[in-house]
Specification:
The chain has about 300 residues and is mainly alpha-helical. The chain contains 14 helices and no strands. The protein is flat. It starts with a helix and ends with a helix. About 25% of the residues are buried.
Length: about 300
């Protein structure tokens, strides 16, 4: 028995060492791609590092001055509010439309493959293509939307230059492009729901609403939490659509945190100040992610 136990322990130790050897390269790559840039960014956020000035003058350690300057900046606070507002409405409507599309397609007996392919097309398009296509359609001069409104004798707008419509247009475009992502994940989750539960509910005389509340949603709640988490993170770092369509205007009404960091950090090479903003954004995203993870695990 002693020899057998020794062999079992030795085999377990070898298996553990083999497993560690297999995951070590992955851990090293993750550390290089995530931990190192994060530490590097945090270090620069504590300095006055400016690429242009650094060529002539040395970089100095200034402690938390970048953070105090950042949080005291009205432009940055406006960017935080715009980002939070955009994320809130985008996630709610994307989850709603994605869920509606998933339940509808899942209920079909024929044509599921063709319809889900069509519904996924907006998400498969590059963001630049989507932004430029919508900019052409909403152009105040030759856009088809204004031509239709004009033909119907309705008011027309300069959609991306009007403070009344710019934010809403960005929100609509993001919802249009990203709702299919939610649809795809929730549709896959719905495929795994046991059909016998639906049959039992039908026998018991449950209504469609009761079936939705007591069977469908409980079975896909983890997928719903995952979708909400992924869309929150992605919406919070919105940049490309804003930069291409509004540049943060008009009157900073569409400025997001990433657009602010681009304008104040990347464009003017003030990497110390921009790094402080990146750290603040990372903390905000982690706080939001922790809320979703805690709710999903409870």
């Amino acid at each position: 028995m002693h020899k057998n136990e020794h062999r079992i322990l030795s085999g377990a130790a070898q298996t553990k060492r083999f497993g560690m050897a297999m995951i070590t390269p992955t851990v090293i790559v993750l550390l290089i791609l995530t931990a190192y840039p994060l530490i590097f960014t945090f270090y620069y956020s504590l300095t006055d590092y400016n690429l242009l000035k650094a060529l002539k003058n040395p970089t100095h350690f200034i402690g938390l001055k970048n953070y105090t300057k950042l949080l005291g900046n009205e432009y940055f606070r406006k960017a935080i509010w715009n980002t939070v507002k955009f994320t809130f409405f985008a996630v709610i409507f994307e989850m709603l439309f994605g869920f509606m599309m998933a339940t509808f397609v899942n209920s079909l007996r024929k044509g599921q493959k063709a319809l889900r392919t069509l519904l996924l097309l907006p998400y498969l398009l590059p963001t630049v293509t989507v932004a430029l296509s919508w900019r052409m359609m909403l152009s105040p001069n030759y856009g088809i939307v204004n031509h239709v409104l004009n033909a119907l004798h309705l008011p027309v707008y300069n959609w991306f230059a009007d403070i009344k419509t710019a934010f809403a247009m960005l929100l609509i475009i993001d919802i249009w492009q990203s709702s299919p992502f939610v649809f795809l994940l929730l549709y896959a989750a719905l495929q795994a729901v046991p059909q016998d539960q639906y049959e039992a509910a039908k026998i018991e005389g449950a209504t469609h609403f009761e079936t939705l509340i007591y069977i469908t949603i409980p079975n896909i709640k983890n997928a719903l939490a995952l979708c909400a988490l992924l869309r929150t993170i992605d919406s919070f770092r919105l940049f490309d659509k804003v930069n291409l369509l509004t540049g943060g205007g008009p009157a900073n009404s569409t400025t997001t945190i990433t657009q602010y960091l681009y304008n104040t950090g990347i464009k003017v090479f003030d990497f110390g100040y921009g790094s402080a903003g990146a750290i603040v954004m990372t903390i905000l995203v982690l706080l939001l992610a922790s809320v979703y993870i805690k709710r999903a695990m409870s």
